[in-house]
Amino acid sequence: MISVFKKEVAGFLNSLIAYIVVSVFLTGIGLLMWVFPQTNLLDYGFADMESLFGLAPYVFMFLIPAICMKFFAEERKSGTMELLFTRPLTDYQVIFGKYLAGFFLVVFSLVPTLIYYYSVYELGNPRGNLDSAGIAGSYIGLLLLGSFFTALGVLASSLTENQIVAFILGAFLCFIWYDGIDALSQMDLVDGAGHQIERLGVVYHYNSLSRGLMDSRDIMYFVSITTATLLLTKLVIGSRKW
In angstroms, rounded to a whole number, what is the distance separating the alpha carbons of residues 9 and 16? Predict the structure, then answer.
């Protein structure tokens, strides 16, 4: 598993596209926080990072599938999938190694945003006048969300040998889980079922964590759906005859 993890991380960090993807992510978030008139906190006048945590999930919908799209798709297209599974590794070790590599790269992309926290901390009046507990909860929520999106990206990559298709499918799955279920709950097609449907989507649990409330139910929700997605990936991989 460690060898798969190292291979994927090294392959990503040794490619130009890795730094382009991370740079686009950080530049996009930076522009939204500091430049664009509708979202920048300098005009907003409050020392908080709401714009970052409100917009980062939508950036993740494209960033994470871009990171994960080649994990299995490239192996299948290059014909190395059979070789990979003939090594003394179980399917779970291969899948989990690739998943951990994807999640590591998500964390790698997210760490530089701590500079934004420091900037807001220094700009507060008085200095440090911001909700650090809420920001910590938001970062935890964002990491858990990134973990789930990574699992969806790995699943999408296991379904096709075309990286572009894997990217589009991964982005679509992330969008459905993040916005689709929430939109469905607001339609209230069945009397009183709207709130129950809302709880099935990630927005409800992500927003709860973003308020700084470390509820074990929210954490278990993300752990459960991430685990279920990886198990589904195992079924996809196991059902194919390489």
Answer: 13
Task: Spell 128-164 as b/e; 16+ CB within 10 A means b.
Answer: eebeeebbebbbbbbebbbbbbbbbbbbbbbbbbbbe
Q: Helices 50-68 and 132-158: crossing angle, nearest 10°?
A: 20
Q: Are 200 and 217 in contact (CB under 8 A)?
A: no
Q: What is the pTM of this model?
A: 0.86
Work out the widest C-alpha separation in the chain, in whole angstroms: 63
**Domain ranges (residues) in the chain:** 2-239
For 127, the token pair is: 């200095």
Q: Mean pLDDT by 10-residue block, N- to C-terminus, for the chain (242 residues)?
A: 77 76 80 71 64 83 88 76 69 88 88 83 70 81 93 92 91 90 71 70 84 81 94 85 50
User: Is 42 buried (19+), middle (13-18) or exposed (0-12) by CB count in 10 A?
Assistant: exposed
Question: Cα-atom radius of gyration of the chain, to the nearest Å?
Answer: 19
Q: Which residues contact 113 (CB under 8 A, 6 or more apart)?
A: 26, 29, 52, 56
Q: How big is the CA angle at 164 (ends 62 and 73), to the nearest 5 degrees?
A: 105
Q: Burial code of 185-209, b = ≥16 C-beta within 10 A, e = fewer?
A: beeeeeeeeeeebbeebbbbbbbbb
